[in-house]
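Subject: for your reference before the review

Hello V.,

The reviewers asked for a structural picture of the protein, and I figured it would be easier to keep everything in one thread rather than splitting it across files. Below is the amino acid sequence we used in the manuscript, unchanged from the supplementary table.
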Amino acid sequence: MEIAVLLPCYNEGPAIYEVVRSFQKALPGSVVYVYDNNSRDNTVEEARRAGAVVRSEPRQGKGHVIRRMFADINADIYVMADGDGTYDAEAAPELVKKLKDENLDMVVGARRSVEGEDTYRRGHKFGNWMLTSTVRAIFGHGFADMLSGYRVFSRRFVKSFPALSTGFQIETEITVHALSLTLPCAEVETRYFERAEGTASKLSTYKDGIRILSFIMLLFKEIRPFIFFTAVAAALFAVAMVFGVMVIAEFQQSGEVAGIARAVLTALLMLCSLVSFVCGIVLDSVSRGRIEQKRLHYISVASGR
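And here is what came back from the structure prediction:
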């Protein structure tokens, strides 16, 4: 079976040579692709020296790179990792074997720190837990490490995945895509190393964390619109009831509605609540139709196994 190793890179010159060579050693016969995303160092030269197929994506952002990779490369199995040397290439055969033996569409390499506390910063670890828990609460069964960049995919998954995000939200989008279509997936614990000396993390703990959380809410609205808009309707209804009780209390005491503005606001909130609930019903039908279309496209792609 043809295996493609996908390595999105941005300024990973000090690490990429060893990363490419380690995957070539772990998966003999595979083709390693390095997609450079406007690096300003020697990433391209080092990747070519290691024997990788080097291509480029001019639009900045990991999501753009993954979208280009998935569109350009044809293989039976895809192994995706980062080019910074943090992921364990020796675990790749195990991940591939699990995908093949259990007929899965995705296997996630859950990170396990092995080289001290600095390997997996506390802020990143907490943020990952929080975001992963949020996705699990909204979309049901999830993963222990949703934001891991170490994954193995089937051809069917790759060629049916729309890839709409542009940055570090891409792992979230991949996860939610698998959950929304109830695709067969698994998770395997893998070692997580410190970054290679001379490389720097491109992930901003707070800035990218907020972006990912916002993207989760967007996917919540798009994929679970009935629950989303019903929750909004319930919140508006609760606020309307608070003001409504005040208006009724005033009327009972004085025999007239003294706070006209408050009464109008109550009526508007009630109306908005009703509109939100109706939108949820309508958009739920639209969302189901979109999911059915995705599912039909998914089963139309040859599995490659």
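For the response letter, the relevant points are probably these. The chain has a mean pLDDT of 88. The chain is about 55% helix and 15% strand.

Happy to draft the paragraph if you're swamped.

O.
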